[in-house]
Amino acid sequence: MNTLHTVNTQYGDVSGIETQKGILTFKGIPYAAPPVGANRFQPPLPPTPWTDVKDTTEYGPTAPQLTPTSGPFAELLPNVVIPGDDYLNLNIWTSGITGKKPVMVFIHGGAFVVGSGAVPGYDGSNFARDGVVLVTINYRLGVEGFLWFGEGIPNLGMLDQIAALKWVRDNIANFGGDPDNVTIFGESAGGMSVCTLLAMKEAQGLFRRAIAESGAGHSAISASSAKLIAARLAEILGVAPTREAVGEVSAEKIFAAQDQLGAEIMANPSIELWGEAAFNLMPFEPVIDGHLLTATPIECISNGAAKDVDILIGTNSQEFRLFLLPDGILPKITATALHRAASAYGLSAKAIQTYQTNRPDSSPGDVLSAIITDWFYHIPALRIAEKHRNTHVYEFSWGSPACDNLLGACHGIELAFVFDNLSDPGYAEMIGNHPPQELADTVHKAWVNFATHGNPGWDTYDVNNRVSMRFDVVSQITTDDRADERSPWDGIR
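Now predict its structure.
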Protein backbone atom coordinates (compact mmCIF):
# COMPACT_ATOMS: atom_id res chain seq x y z
CA MET A 1 0.00 0.00 0.00
CA ASN A 2 1.37 3.43 -0.93
CA THR A 3 2.19 5.80 1.93
CA LEU A 4 0.75 9.31 2.14
CA HIS A 5 3.00 12.25 3.01
CA THR A 6 1.89 15.73 4.10
CA VAL A 7 3.93 18.83 3.29
CA ASN A 8 3.26 22.45 4.23
CA THR A 9 3.08 25.18 1.59
CA GLN A 10 2.46 28.88 2.13
CA TYR A 11 -1.19 28.38 1.11
CA GLY A 12 -1.93 25.17 3.04
CA ASP A 13 -0.89 21.58 3.56
CA VAL A 14 -0.80 19.08 0.66
CA SER A 15 -0.88 15.31 0.78
CA GLY A 16 1.16 13.35 -1.72
CA ILE A 17 1.91 9.71 -2.21
CA GLU A 18 5.04 7.56 -2.01
CA THR A 19 5.36 5.17 -4.94
CA GLN A 20 6.69 1.63 -4.77
CA LYS A 21 10.02 2.99 -6.00
CA GLY A 22 10.26 5.27 -2.96
CA ILE A 23 9.53 8.48 -4.88
CA LEU A 24 7.17 11.06 -3.37
CA THR A 25 4.73 12.66 -5.80
CA PHE A 26 2.52 15.71 -5.31
CA LYS A 27 0.22 16.54 -8.22
CA GLY A 28 -2.14 19.34 -9.08
CA ILE A 29 -0.86 21.83 -6.48
CA PRO A 30 -2.36 25.28 -7.28
CA TYR A 31 0.28 27.97 -7.73
CA ALA A 32 -2.25 30.64 -8.74
CA ALA A 33 -5.98 31.27 -8.56
CA PRO A 34 -8.20 29.86 -11.32
CA PRO A 35 -7.98 32.31 -14.28
CA VAL A 36 -11.75 32.47 -14.78
CA GLY A 37 -14.48 34.98 -14.09
CA ALA A 38 -13.00 38.28 -12.92
CA ASN A 39 -9.52 36.73 -13.11
CA ARG A 40 -9.79 35.95 -16.82
CA PHE A 41 -7.36 37.87 -19.03
CA GLN A 42 -5.70 39.17 -15.88
CA PRO A 43 -2.22 38.48 -14.45
CA PRO A 44 -2.15 35.41 -12.20
CA LEU A 45 -3.23 35.99 -8.61
CA PRO A 46 -2.21 33.91 -5.57
CA PRO A 47 -4.44 30.94 -4.83
CA THR A 48 -6.94 31.16 -1.99
CA PRO A 49 -5.41 29.51 1.12
CA TRP A 50 -7.02 26.29 2.32
CA THR A 51 -7.34 24.90 5.85
CA ASP A 52 -7.89 21.18 5.27
CA VAL A 53 -5.08 19.04 3.85
CA LYS A 54 -5.38 19.14 0.04
CA ASP A 55 -5.27 15.78 -1.72
CA THR A 56 -2.53 16.00 -4.38
CA THR A 57 -2.27 12.36 -5.34
CA GLU A 58 -3.77 12.84 -8.83
CA TYR A 59 -3.09 15.29 -11.65
CA GLY A 60 -5.22 18.42 -11.55
CA PRO A 61 -7.01 20.15 -14.44
CA THR A 62 -5.05 21.21 -17.52
CA ALA A 63 -5.29 24.40 -19.58
CA PRO A 64 -8.30 24.54 -21.93
CA GLN A 65 -7.30 23.35 -25.39
CA LEU A 66 -8.46 21.42 -28.40
CA THR A 67 -6.27 18.39 -28.96
CA PRO A 68 -6.63 15.84 -31.79
CA THR A 69 -7.80 12.40 -30.72
CA SER A 70 -6.91 10.65 -33.95
CA GLY A 71 -4.49 10.98 -36.81
CA PRO A 72 -0.70 10.70 -37.05
CA PHE A 73 0.15 13.54 -34.69
CA ALA A 74 -2.19 12.29 -31.98
CA GLU A 75 -0.48 8.90 -32.16
CA LEU A 76 3.06 10.26 -32.19
CA LEU A 77 2.49 12.99 -29.58
CA PRO A 78 -0.28 11.86 -27.21
CA ASN A 79 -1.66 14.58 -24.97
CA VAL A 80 -3.75 14.73 -21.80
CA VAL A 81 -6.66 17.12 -21.24
CA ILE A 82 -8.33 17.23 -17.80
CA PRO A 83 -11.33 19.61 -17.46
CA GLY A 84 -11.55 22.12 -14.64
CA ASP A 85 -10.97 25.77 -13.79
CA ASP A 86 -8.12 25.33 -11.29
CA TYR A 87 -5.57 24.51 -13.98
CA LEU A 88 -2.75 26.84 -12.94
CA ASN A 89 -1.14 24.02 -11.01
CA LEU A 90 2.10 22.10 -10.83
CA ASN A 91 3.38 18.61 -10.08
CA ILE A 92 6.39 17.56 -7.99
CA TRP A 93 8.53 14.43 -7.77
CA THR A 94 11.15 14.12 -5.01
CA SER A 95 13.10 11.37 -3.27
CA GLY A 96 12.54 13.00 0.11
CA ILE A 97 11.41 16.22 1.76
CA THR A 98 14.70 16.93 3.53
CA GLY A 99 17.99 18.22 2.16
CA LYS A 100 18.75 20.76 -0.57
CA LYS A 101 18.51 18.96 -3.89
CA PRO A 102 18.83 20.69 -7.28
CA VAL A 103 15.44 21.61 -8.74
CA MET A 104 14.34 21.28 -12.37
CA VAL A 105 11.14 22.93 -13.65
CA PHE A 106 9.86 21.58 -16.98
CA ILE A 107 7.81 23.78 -19.34
CA HIS A 108 5.86 21.74 -21.88
CA GLY A 109 5.68 22.44 -25.60
CA GLY A 110 2.76 22.44 -28.01
CA ALA A 111 3.07 25.61 -30.14
CA PHE A 112 1.58 27.60 -27.22
CA VAL A 113 -1.86 26.11 -27.93
CA VAL A 114 -1.74 22.52 -26.62
CA GLY A 115 0.07 20.46 -23.99
CA SER A 116 0.26 20.12 -20.22
CA GLY A 117 2.47 19.10 -17.36
CA ALA A 118 0.24 16.06 -16.81
CA VAL A 119 1.48 14.09 -19.84
CA PRO A 120 2.61 10.72 -18.43
CA GLY A 121 5.84 10.86 -20.43
CA TYR A 122 6.89 13.84 -18.33
CA ASP A 123 6.76 11.77 -15.15
CA GLY A 124 9.72 12.97 -13.08
CA SER A 125 10.34 9.81 -11.07
CA ASN A 126 13.69 9.06 -12.68
CA PHE A 127 14.92 12.60 -12.12
CA ALA A 128 13.91 12.23 -8.46
CA ARG A 129 15.67 8.86 -8.37
CA ASP A 130 18.85 10.63 -9.41
CA GLY A 131 18.69 13.36 -6.78
CA VAL A 132 16.67 16.09 -8.51
CA VAL A 133 13.36 17.61 -7.40
CA LEU A 134 11.39 17.65 -10.65
CA VAL A 135 8.49 20.05 -11.26
CA THR A 136 6.12 20.23 -14.24
CA ILE A 137 3.69 23.11 -14.74
CA ASN A 138 0.58 24.18 -16.63
CA TYR A 139 0.13 27.69 -18.06
CA ARG A 140 -2.52 29.50 -20.11
CA LEU A 141 -2.47 28.62 -23.80
CA GLY A 142 -3.75 30.10 -27.05
CA VAL A 143 -6.35 32.84 -26.70
CA GLU A 144 -6.32 32.62 -22.89
CA GLY A 145 -2.56 33.08 -22.63
CA PHE A 146 -1.41 35.11 -25.62
CA LEU A 147 -4.30 36.98 -27.28
CA TRP A 148 -3.62 40.73 -27.16
CA PHE A 149 -5.43 43.62 -28.80
CA GLY A 150 -2.94 46.17 -27.51
CA GLU A 151 -4.84 46.92 -24.31
CA GLY A 152 -4.52 45.33 -20.89
CA ILE A 153 -1.69 43.04 -19.78
CA PRO A 154 -0.04 40.92 -22.51
CA ASN A 155 1.89 37.65 -22.21
CA LEU A 156 -0.38 36.12 -19.59
CA GLY A 157 0.96 32.66 -20.34
CA MET A 158 4.48 33.87 -19.62
CA LEU A 159 3.32 35.57 -16.42
CA ASP A 160 1.82 32.23 -15.38
CA GLN A 161 5.22 30.59 -15.83
CA ILE A 162 6.83 33.31 -13.72
CA ALA A 163 4.17 32.83 -11.02
CA ALA A 164 4.95 29.12 -10.97
CA LEU A 165 8.66 29.86 -10.59
CA LYS A 166 7.91 32.24 -7.72
CA TRP A 167 5.91 29.46 -6.05
CA VAL A 168 8.88 27.15 -6.47
CA ARG A 169 11.20 29.77 -4.96
CA ASP A 170 8.96 30.17 -1.91
CA ASN A 171 7.92 26.55 -1.32
CA ILE A 172 10.28 24.02 -2.87
CA ALA A 173 12.54 23.79 0.21
CA ASN A 174 9.69 21.97 1.97
CA PHE A 175 9.91 19.30 -0.73
CA GLY A 176 13.66 18.82 -0.31
CA GLY A 177 14.67 21.25 -3.05
CA ASP A 178 17.21 24.06 -3.11
CA PRO A 179 15.50 27.32 -4.20
CA ASP A 180 18.92 28.75 -5.03
CA ASN A 181 19.67 25.98 -7.53
CA VAL A 182 16.74 25.94 -9.96
CA THR A 183 17.05 24.92 -13.61
CA ILE A 184 14.22 25.65 -16.02
CA PHE A 185 13.94 23.45 -19.08
CA GLY A 186 11.47 23.05 -21.88
CA GLU A 187 10.94 21.58 -25.33
CA SER A 188 9.59 23.25 -28.49
CA ALA A 189 7.31 26.08 -27.28
CA GLY A 190 8.68 25.20 -23.85
CA GLY A 191 12.20 25.86 -25.14
CA MET A 192 11.00 29.13 -26.63
CA SER A 193 9.47 29.93 -23.24
CA VAL A 194 12.80 29.23 -21.56
CA CYS A 195 14.56 31.72 -23.85
CA THR A 196 11.78 34.26 -23.32
CA LEU A 197 12.15 33.92 -19.54
CA LEU A 198 15.88 34.53 -19.97
CA ALA A 199 14.95 37.84 -21.62
CA MET A 200 12.32 39.02 -19.11
CA LYS A 201 13.29 41.16 -16.12
CA GLU A 202 10.29 39.77 -14.22
CA ALA A 203 11.96 36.35 -14.24
CA GLN A 204 15.41 37.45 -13.12
CA GLY A 205 16.69 35.66 -10.04
CA LEU A 206 14.11 32.87 -10.23
CA PHE A 207 16.47 30.31 -11.80
CA ARG A 208 20.18 29.64 -12.01
CA ARG A 209 20.32 27.52 -15.16
CA ALA A 210 18.26 27.00 -18.30
CA ILE A 211 17.90 24.22 -20.88
CA ALA A 212 16.18 24.92 -24.21
CA GLU A 213 15.32 21.89 -26.32
CA SER A 214 14.30 22.52 -29.93
CA GLY A 215 13.23 26.11 -29.33
CA ALA A 216 15.40 29.21 -29.19
CA GLY A 217 15.20 32.97 -28.95
CA HIS A 218 13.71 34.13 -32.24
CA SER A 219 10.09 33.19 -31.56
CA ALA A 220 8.23 36.31 -30.51
CA ILE A 221 5.96 38.69 -32.37
CA SER A 222 5.68 42.46 -32.36
CA ALA A 223 2.75 44.30 -30.83
CA SER A 224 1.53 45.19 -34.32
CA SER A 225 1.52 41.52 -35.33
CA ALA A 226 -0.36 40.55 -32.18
CA LYS A 227 -3.01 43.15 -33.03
CA LEU A 228 -3.37 41.82 -36.58
CA ILE A 229 -3.89 38.31 -35.29
CA ALA A 230 -6.29 39.40 -32.56
CA ALA A 231 -8.35 41.46 -35.00
CA ARG A 232 -8.67 38.54 -37.40
CA LEU A 233 -9.70 36.21 -34.57
CA ALA A 234 -12.45 38.62 -33.53
CA GLU A 235 -13.55 38.88 -37.15
CA ILE A 236 -13.81 35.08 -37.44
CA LEU A 237 -15.83 34.98 -34.21
CA GLY A 238 -18.02 37.89 -35.32
CA VAL A 239 -17.42 39.93 -32.17
CA ALA A 240 -15.90 43.29 -31.27
CA PRO A 241 -12.07 43.32 -31.19
CA THR A 242 -11.72 43.19 -27.41
CA ARG A 243 -10.80 40.50 -24.92
CA GLU A 244 -14.11 41.05 -23.17
CA ALA A 245 -16.07 40.33 -26.34
CA VAL A 246 -14.02 37.24 -27.10
CA GLY A 247 -14.57 36.11 -23.53
CA GLU A 248 -18.32 35.92 -24.16
CA VAL A 249 -17.83 33.25 -26.84
CA SER A 250 -17.98 29.54 -26.01
CA ALA A 251 -14.73 27.60 -25.71
CA GLU A 252 -15.70 25.37 -28.64
CA LYS A 253 -16.10 28.37 -30.97
CA ILE A 254 -12.81 29.86 -29.76
CA PHE A 255 -10.96 26.59 -30.43
CA ALA A 256 -12.51 26.40 -33.89
CA ALA A 257 -11.48 30.01 -34.59
CA GLN A 258 -7.93 29.27 -33.40
CA ASP A 259 -7.77 26.36 -35.82
CA GLN A 260 -9.14 28.45 -38.68
CA LEU A 261 -6.66 31.21 -37.92
CA GLY A 262 -3.77 28.77 -37.97
CA ALA A 263 -4.98 27.29 -41.26
CA GLU A 264 -5.26 30.75 -42.83
CA ILE A 265 -1.71 31.64 -41.84
CA MET A 266 -0.44 28.31 -43.17
CA ALA A 267 -2.27 28.77 -46.47
CA ASN A 268 -1.16 32.38 -46.98
CA PRO A 269 1.90 33.26 -44.83
CA SER A 270 1.80 36.94 -45.70
CA ILE A 271 3.84 39.37 -43.62
CA GLU A 272 1.32 42.07 -44.48
CA LEU A 273 -1.51 40.01 -43.00
CA TRP A 274 0.21 38.38 -40.04
CA GLY A 275 3.53 40.10 -39.35
CA GLU A 276 6.19 37.84 -37.82
CA ALA A 277 3.71 34.99 -37.40
CA ALA A 278 4.04 34.47 -41.15
CA PHE A 279 7.53 33.08 -40.52
CA ASN A 280 6.87 30.51 -37.81
CA LEU A 281 3.14 29.98 -38.47
CA MET A 282 2.26 30.33 -34.77
CA PRO A 283 -0.47 32.93 -34.15
CA PHE A 284 -0.15 32.76 -30.36
CA GLU A 285 3.28 33.28 -28.85
CA PRO A 286 5.15 35.80 -26.65
CA VAL A 287 4.54 39.41 -27.64
CA ILE A 288 7.18 42.15 -27.72
CA ASP A 289 5.11 44.66 -25.80
CA GLY A 290 7.94 47.02 -24.81
CA HIS A 291 7.55 46.37 -21.08
CA LEU A 292 7.45 42.69 -20.12
CA LEU A 293 9.36 41.77 -23.28
CA THR A 294 11.34 44.63 -24.82
CA ALA A 295 12.76 42.85 -27.89
CA THR A 296 13.12 39.36 -29.28
CA PRO A 297 14.73 37.04 -26.70
CA ILE A 298 17.88 36.65 -28.81
CA GLU A 299 18.29 40.44 -28.92
CA CYS A 300 17.82 40.72 -25.15
CA ILE A 301 20.28 37.90 -24.51
CA SER A 302 22.77 39.45 -26.94
CA ASN A 303 22.51 42.67 -24.93
CA GLY A 304 23.35 40.93 -21.66
CA ALA A 305 20.05 39.64 -20.30
CA ALA A 306 20.56 36.64 -17.98
CA LYS A 307 24.32 36.94 -18.42
CA ASP A 308 24.94 35.00 -15.20
CA VAL A 309 22.63 32.09 -16.09
CA ASP A 310 24.19 28.85 -17.36
CA ILE A 311 22.56 27.63 -20.58
CA LEU A 312 22.32 24.24 -22.29
CA ILE A 313 20.72 24.49 -25.72
CA GLY A 314 20.31 22.19 -28.66
CA THR A 315 18.18 20.58 -31.32
CA ASN A 316 17.51 17.29 -33.03
CA SER A 317 19.19 16.51 -36.35
CA GLN A 318 15.98 16.05 -38.34
CA GLU A 319 13.43 18.18 -36.48
CA PHE A 320 11.16 19.07 -39.36
CA ARG A 321 10.53 15.50 -40.51
CA LEU A 322 7.83 15.32 -37.84
CA PHE A 323 5.84 17.98 -39.71
CA LEU A 324 6.41 16.70 -43.26
CA LEU A 325 6.30 12.93 -42.93
CA PRO A 326 3.16 11.83 -41.01
CA ASP A 327 0.75 13.63 -43.36
CA GLY A 328 2.60 12.44 -46.45
CA ILE A 329 3.94 15.84 -47.53
CA LEU A 330 7.64 14.98 -47.63
CA PRO A 331 7.68 12.66 -50.70
CA LYS A 332 5.56 15.14 -52.67
CA ILE A 333 8.14 17.94 -52.47
CA THR A 334 9.74 18.59 -55.86
CA ALA A 335 13.15 19.99 -56.73
CA THR A 336 11.44 23.21 -57.83
CA ALA A 337 9.64 23.51 -54.50
CA LEU A 338 12.90 22.83 -52.66
CA HIS A 339 14.73 25.66 -54.42
CA ARG A 340 11.83 28.08 -54.13
CA ALA A 341 11.44 27.50 -50.38
CA ALA A 342 15.16 27.48 -49.59
CA SER A 343 15.68 30.68 -51.57
CA ALA A 344 12.87 32.30 -49.60
CA TYR A 345 14.83 31.54 -46.42
CA GLY A 346 17.77 33.44 -47.93
CA LEU A 347 20.00 30.56 -48.99
CA SER A 348 22.01 30.89 -52.17
CA ALA A 349 21.95 28.29 -54.93
CA LYS A 350 25.46 27.26 -53.87
CA ALA A 351 24.33 26.67 -50.29
CA ILE A 352 21.37 24.58 -51.46
CA GLN A 353 23.77 22.52 -53.55
CA THR A 354 25.90 21.92 -50.45
CA TYR A 355 22.93 20.42 -48.63
CA GLN A 356 22.19 18.22 -51.63
CA THR A 357 25.81 17.11 -52.04
CA ASN A 358 25.99 16.15 -48.36
CA ARG A 359 22.87 13.96 -48.87
CA PRO A 360 23.51 12.26 -52.23
CA ASP A 361 20.74 9.67 -51.90
CA SER A 362 18.11 12.00 -50.44
CA SER A 363 14.92 13.26 -52.04
CA PRO A 364 14.14 16.97 -52.44
CA GLY A 365 11.84 16.60 -49.44
CA ASP A 366 14.67 15.21 -47.32
CA VAL A 367 16.91 18.12 -48.28
CA LEU A 368 14.22 20.73 -47.63
CA SER A 369 13.51 19.16 -44.24
CA ALA A 370 17.20 19.52 -43.35
CA ILE A 371 17.24 23.16 -44.47
CA ILE A 372 14.10 24.08 -42.51
CA THR A 373 15.46 22.23 -39.46
CA ASP A 374 18.55 24.41 -39.57
CA TRP A 375 16.65 27.65 -40.28
CA PHE A 376 14.03 27.25 -37.56
CA TYR A 377 15.85 25.22 -34.90
CA HIS A 378 19.59 24.62 -35.25
CA ILE A 379 20.89 28.03 -36.32
CA PRO A 380 18.78 29.99 -33.76
CA ALA A 381 20.21 27.73 -31.05
CA LEU A 382 23.74 28.49 -32.21
CA ARG A 383 22.96 32.22 -32.23
CA ILE A 384 22.19 31.99 -28.49
CA ALA A 385 25.44 30.12 -27.90
CA GLU A 386 27.41 32.67 -29.91
CA LYS A 387 26.07 35.55 -27.81
CA HIS A 388 25.94 34.03 -24.31
CA ARG A 389 29.29 33.30 -22.74
CA ASN A 390 28.44 30.20 -20.69
CA THR A 391 26.43 28.01 -23.04
CA HIS A 392 26.73 24.31 -23.79
CA VAL A 393 25.39 23.01 -27.13
CA TYR A 394 24.10 19.57 -28.09
CA GLU A 395 22.55 17.85 -31.10
CA PHE A 396 20.42 14.73 -30.70
CA SER A 397 21.05 12.51 -33.74
CA TRP A 398 19.62 9.09 -32.97
CA GLY A 399 17.23 8.09 -35.73
CA SER A 400 13.96 6.44 -34.75
CA PRO A 401 12.90 3.27 -36.60
CA ALA A 402 9.29 4.52 -36.57
CA CYS A 403 7.47 5.12 -39.85
CA ASP A 404 9.63 2.57 -41.70
CA ASN A 405 12.83 4.21 -40.43
CA LEU A 406 11.83 7.52 -42.00
CA LEU A 407 10.97 9.55 -38.88
CA GLY A 408 14.64 9.88 -37.90
CA ALA A 409 15.85 12.29 -35.23
CA CYS A 410 12.66 14.34 -35.47
CA HIS A 411 11.09 17.01 -33.31
CA GLY A 412 10.30 15.74 -29.82
CA ILE A 413 12.27 12.50 -30.15
CA GLU A 414 14.67 13.39 -27.33
CA LEU A 415 12.02 13.73 -24.62
CA ALA A 416 11.78 10.02 -23.80
CA PHE A 417 15.56 9.97 -23.36
CA VAL A 418 15.75 13.18 -21.33
CA PHE A 419 13.16 11.88 -18.85
CA ASP A 420 14.60 8.33 -19.08
CA ASN A 421 11.05 7.12 -19.69
CA LEU A 422 11.61 4.83 -22.69
CA SER A 423 9.01 2.36 -21.45
CA ASP A 424 6.20 4.93 -21.29
CA PRO A 425 3.49 3.80 -23.76
CA GLY A 426 3.00 7.35 -24.99
CA TYR A 427 6.44 7.36 -26.61
CA ALA A 428 6.11 3.96 -28.30
CA GLU A 429 4.82 5.23 -31.66
CA MET A 430 7.68 7.70 -31.92
CA ILE A 431 10.70 5.77 -30.62
CA GLY A 432 9.80 2.20 -31.65
CA ASN A 433 10.11 -1.06 -29.75
CA HIS A 434 13.79 -1.23 -28.79
CA PRO A 435 15.20 2.26 -28.16
CA PRO A 436 18.75 2.24 -26.78
CA GLN A 437 18.71 2.49 -22.98
CA GLU A 438 22.41 3.39 -23.03
CA LEU A 439 21.55 6.59 -24.90
CA ALA A 440 18.86 7.46 -22.37
CA ASP A 441 21.41 6.91 -19.60
CA THR A 442 23.81 9.32 -21.32
CA VAL A 443 21.31 12.08 -22.13
CA HIS A 444 19.47 11.93 -18.81
CA LYS A 445 22.77 12.04 -16.90
CA ALA A 446 23.88 15.11 -18.86
CA TRP A 447 20.67 16.96 -17.89
CA VAL A 448 21.07 15.93 -14.23
CA ASN A 449 24.74 16.93 -14.18
CA PHE A 450 23.97 20.30 -15.74
CA ALA A 451 21.23 21.00 -13.21
CA THR A 452 23.45 19.91 -10.34
CA HIS A 453 26.66 21.83 -11.07
CA GLY A 454 26.34 23.52 -14.48
CA ASN A 455 28.47 21.13 -16.53
CA PRO A 456 26.76 18.46 -18.67
CA GLY A 457 30.08 16.81 -19.52
CA TRP A 458 31.64 18.85 -22.33
CA ASP A 459 33.06 22.33 -22.90
CA THR A 460 31.08 25.50 -23.49
CA TYR A 461 30.52 26.81 -27.02
CA ASP A 462 31.98 29.95 -28.56
CA VAL A 463 32.78 31.18 -32.05
CA ASN A 464 36.39 30.08 -31.71
CA ASN A 465 35.87 26.45 -30.74
CA ARG A 466 32.22 25.65 -31.62
CA VAL A 467 32.25 22.58 -29.38
CA SER A 468 29.05 20.56 -29.03
CA MET A 469 27.89 17.09 -28.06
CA ARG A 470 26.26 14.82 -30.61
CA PHE A 471 24.02 12.30 -28.88
CA ASP A 472 23.65 8.96 -30.65
CA VAL A 473 24.16 5.26 -29.94
CA VAL A 474 27.80 6.29 -29.76
CA SER A 475 27.83 9.88 -28.52
CA GLN A 476 30.78 12.12 -29.30
CA ILE A 477 32.04 15.66 -28.88
CA THR A 478 32.31 17.56 -32.17
CA THR A 479 33.97 20.80 -33.27
CA ASP A 480 32.12 23.02 -35.74
CA ASP A 481 30.04 20.11 -36.93
CA ARG A 482 28.60 20.66 -40.43
CA ALA A 483 30.47 23.94 -40.82
CA ASP A 484 29.73 24.02 -44.56
CA GLU A 485 26.00 24.07 -43.78
CA ARG A 486 26.31 26.47 -40.86
CA SER A 487 28.32 29.25 -42.50
CA PRO A 488 25.84 30.06 -45.33
CA TRP A 489 23.35 31.21 -42.67
CA ASP A 490 25.67 33.95 -41.43
CA GLY A 491 23.92 37.26 -41.98
CA ILE A 492 20.51 35.62 -42.50
CA ARG A 493 17.90 36.24 -39.82
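The CA atoms of residues 323 and 411 lie 8 Å apart.
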